[in-house]
């Protein structure tokens, strides 16, 4: 029987491999949703080991230390004493002097950040001598605090070369490490000299991300170097500056023990005490770990508050610039 040409041919239903291929094509969106879910979970999986390490080695010991600060020492070892340790800290003149020195560090922090920032700016702008700066700026950072302290003990001794130089120009000798009004400034200056290389590396990394066209536009407009720094470099490196400010402050509060121990041992008259040195005295020499834990908790709170305030002030300054 002839088949009408207008009648569409009826194709048989696919069977075997063709049918399996068709069903597979319909399952493709399901595999796509699974892939997107895996992409969303991947960052958390990658961060989980680091977060676990921080939890076990940082936050858990921190909580144990805070809890230990509410216990007693000596005959009352392990027994709850409430806020007794904190009240004793509030009456201790050495600890109060350490807190005053923390305030001094906060006031000197802009200088500690500006020095590596300006040096990094000069290196980036290739001012005369920038090759020398690039070669030697990191040298102090590789020296241990004990070596740095020993070197400056010799240089700053009452009969040392610096006072001999001052005497040669008609100025009287200065008791750099024996005068309570001078010693803390000297130790902070030595610490800045010994550690600014790390901050300078961070600033140079920030300059690597700076848009060079902004500096070219500033030159075309006739901007001076201070204007370029204030209106171009500072806003562009705001996040780098925030990082350097916070890390420098933390370093000044927690990494000066070696210098203090070698150069002044907390003297003269306790004028160079910082909380970390006070904590070591209570823990290592007076065997009062609970009181040391209370001082450590206070130091942590100080660093937290100061860091948050600095970040807030820097963000406001960048917006105004």
What descriptors fit this protein?
321 residues; mainly alpha; MetI-like fold; 0% strand
Number of strands: 0
Largest sheet: none
Instruction: Supply the CATH class.
Output: Mainly Alpha
Please give the radius of gyration in angstroms. Answer: 31 Å
Q: What is the count of DSSP helices, taking H or I runs of 4+ residues?
A: 13
Q: Give the helix level as a range of percent.
A: over 70%
Beta-strand level of the residues, as a percent range? under 5%
Fill in the CATH topology: MetI-like fold
Output the helix-strand order.
HHHHHHHHHHHHH
Number of domains: 1
Which blocks of ≥5 consecutive residues have pLDDT under 50?
1-9, 17-25
CATH homologous superfamily label: MetI-like
**CATH structural architecture:** Orthogonal Bundle
Mean pLDDT: 84
The structure class reads: mainly alpha
Estimate the global geometry from the Cα principal axes: flat
Explain the layout of strands and helices.
Layout: H1 17-68, H2 84-91, H3 93-124, H4 130-136, H5 145-155, H6 161-168, H7 183-208, H8 212-220, H9 225-236, H10 238-254, H11 257-263, H12 275-285, H13 289-320
Overview of the molecule:
- Mean pLDDT is 84; it is low at 1-9 and 17-25.
- The chain contains 13 helices and no strands.
- The protein is flat.
- α3 crosses α4, α3 (93-124) runs parallel beside α7 and α7 (183-208) packs antiparallel against α10 (238-254).
- The termini are far apart.
- It has a single domain (88-320), classed as MetI-like (MetI-like fold, Orthogonal Bundle), CATH 1.10.3720.
- It is mainly alpha-helical.
């Amino acid at each position: 029987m002839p088949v009408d040409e207008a009648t569409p041919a009826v194709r048989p239903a696919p069977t075997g491999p063709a049918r399996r291929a068709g069903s597979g094509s319909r399952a493709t969106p399901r595999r796509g949703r699974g892939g997107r879910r895996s992409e969303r979970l991947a960052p958390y999986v990658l961060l989980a080991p680091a977060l676990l390490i921080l939890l076990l080695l940082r936050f858990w010991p921190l909580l144990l230390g805070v809890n230990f600060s509410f216990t007693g020492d000596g005959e009352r070892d392990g027994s709850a004493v409430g806020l007794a340790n904190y009240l004793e800290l509030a009456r201790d003149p050495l600890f109060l002097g350490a807190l005053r020195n923390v305030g001094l560090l906060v006031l000197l922090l802009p200088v500690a950040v500006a020095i590596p920032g300006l040096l990094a700016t000069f290196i980036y702008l290739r001012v005369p001598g920038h090759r020398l700066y690039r070669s030697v700026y990191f040298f102090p950072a590789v020296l241990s605090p004990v070596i740095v302290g020993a070197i400056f003990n010799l240089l700053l001794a009452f009969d040392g070369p610096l006072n001999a130089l001052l005497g040669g120009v008609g100025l009287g000798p200065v008791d750099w490490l024996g005068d309570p009004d001078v010693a803390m400034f000297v130790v902070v200056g030595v610490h800045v000299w010994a550690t600014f290389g790390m901050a300078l590396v961070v600033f140079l990394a920030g300059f690597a991300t700076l848009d060079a066209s902004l500096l070219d536009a500033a030159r075309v407009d006739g901007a001076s170097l201070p204007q370029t720094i204030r209106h171009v470099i500072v806003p562009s490196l705001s996040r780098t500056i925030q990082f350097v400010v916070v890390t420098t402050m933390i370093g000044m509060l927690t990494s000066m023990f070696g210098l203090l121990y070698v150069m002044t041992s907390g003297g003269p008259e306790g004028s160079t005490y910082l909380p970390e040195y006070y904590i070591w005295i209570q823990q290592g020499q007076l065997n009062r770990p609970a009181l040391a834990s209370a001082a450590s908790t206070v130091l942590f709170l100080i660093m937290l508050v100061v860091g948050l305030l600095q970040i807030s002030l820097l963000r406001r300054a960048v917006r105004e610039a």
